[in-house]
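Anyone else keep sequences and structure tokens together like this?

Example one:
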Amino acid sequence: MTTPAARIRGAGLGLRRAFAAEVIAAPPAVDFYEVAPENWMRLGGRLGKQFRALSERVPLICHGLSLSLGGPAPLDREFLLELKRFLREHRIRLYSEHLSYCGDDGLLYDLMPIPFTEHAVHYVAERIRQVQDILEQRIAIENVSYYAAPGKEMEEIDFLNAVLQRADCGLLLDLNNIVVNSVNHGYDAVDFLRAIPGERIAYAHVAGHYRQTPELLVDTHGADVIDPVWNLLDSAYAQFGVFPTLLERDFNIPPLAELLREVEMIRSLQHGHIKYRAHG
């Protein structure tokens, strides 16, 4: 079973069609890009050619939207086989998915929380193992934001760590989701981070969110990254060392130059920790 995550490094950006042509015409200083395979797998024509041109020039990783790892419906084997061909055709370095579910007979177009129970640990871990067997590579799962925890039997961090261990998969560490959940559910974000198994981190996400009230944050990926998220990323580098980190922006997408300033912020934090460890 391969572990292609080892071949990505540095500061990345989530690729959106709004600026894909601009990226291809004049590639900026971005070390890797992340794409949702569902949005690109079946494209032909101009967009398909653009994607082919990009995959031949820069490292790409895939972040899935529809696998529904925690859902009741059987895994979509035909989709996974198509995904496997897509990953190999474009030399995609890594595939990740959400530790959530998004439907049963059809998609809900939202990410629903998996109950934090021992039964759910065994159920979702087995499904992750099936995905890894079909793809013939280790995948990474993302800690997700959630707003309710029905049927809760264990804490979020204990559920996450149990799934990681039982599935023997990687972790897509989303720092924004930790900040959002820490405010909404009243825990300490740094304490949560300290309990993460650092050896499983494949890469990380940073993103922005919406502050509806002082006690309620909404994970939107539609705003600039704020200081608590940057500070948590800085703490993560201090604890685990530098790992690949990507900026997500899904809505209210500004000009590419503004996104690149946040990518450069990631790179600046990374370089600071690399220099510190080299001279420490």
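And example two:
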Amino acid sequence: MSVKVYSTPTCPYCQAAKRYLASRGVPFEDIDVSRDRAAAIEMIRKSGQQGVPVLDINGEIIVGFDRPRIDAALAAGY
């Protein structure tokens, strides 16, 4: 299972998504796109969006803190 969260430190929805993943015991890579330009470009290429959070769960791209889609992607990955 590969989970990446593209986020910024000041984004409340990013914090909520990361707390949610942590509460479910899901390990994830937190990528701060405000400090990593290459990661920001990668996020935009994957999602077509400049807003955060963007979650990449085993290649499924989820824009925003969309709990039902996150749950479905996690269930499909296990």
